[in-house]
Amino acid sequence: MGEGSSIALEVDIDGVGPFSYQWMQNDTSILSSVERTLDLDNLDGSDAGDYSVIVDNGKTSEAVLIATVSIEILPPDEDLDKDGITNIVESAFGMDSTLSDSELIPRFSFSENTAEVEFEALRDDLLYVISSSQDLIEWVIEESIEGGGGLQRSILNYNSDASRFFKLQVNTVE
């Protein structure tokens, strides 16, 4: 996992419940982690290690090793995937700094009342969302496009009397 990533660990137990759960990292209890799922957000080096969970049904308890999590800390000023975008910029925009994202860079062109957005939607597992804003605070989704279709071109109409900002957000399809 890359630094700043998120992961969810989950245990699936068969048997007679109700069950209680206690998550452990490197054999140390993680306080307040007593649910079936353990969510780890904004990972850093301290999150690396072996994760296990003790499951108890009041009669018996059993420890189960769920995962070993490795955290890769990427130098911010380097470009590990050689796509021309530094790791720190990719991280700031939620991009994967280990995969080339050069095809995701949108090209915008503007005329009097329209904006044209063009980008490559090559990956089937991604959802491309074009949004606009007048104040960079409230964003309105203009269009959502599922990936895998190659070159995408969207023409968006807007009122030219007001400033308008556009962004292309890339999400994984769930």
Could you describe the 3D structure shown?
By secondary structure, this protein is mainly beta. It has two domains: 7-69, Immunoglobulins (Immunoglobulin-like, Sandwich); 106-172. It is 3% helix and 44% strand. The chain has one helix and twelve strands. A four-stranded antiparallel sheet has the order 3-2-5-6, with no helix packed on it. A three-stranded antiparallel sheet has the order 7-8-11, with no helix packed on it. The longest helix has 6 residues, at 87-92. The chain starts with 6 loop residues before the first strand and ends with a strand. The mean pLDDT is 78.
Please describe the structure with a list of short key phrases separated by commas or semicolons.
single chain; mainly beta; 2 domains; 1 helix; 12 strands; elongated
Short structural summary:
With 174 residues, the chain is mainly beta.
| Structural domain count | 2
Strand content: 35-45%
- Give the CA-based shape: elongated
| Low-confidence runs | none
Helical percent range? under 10%
Oligomeric category: single chain
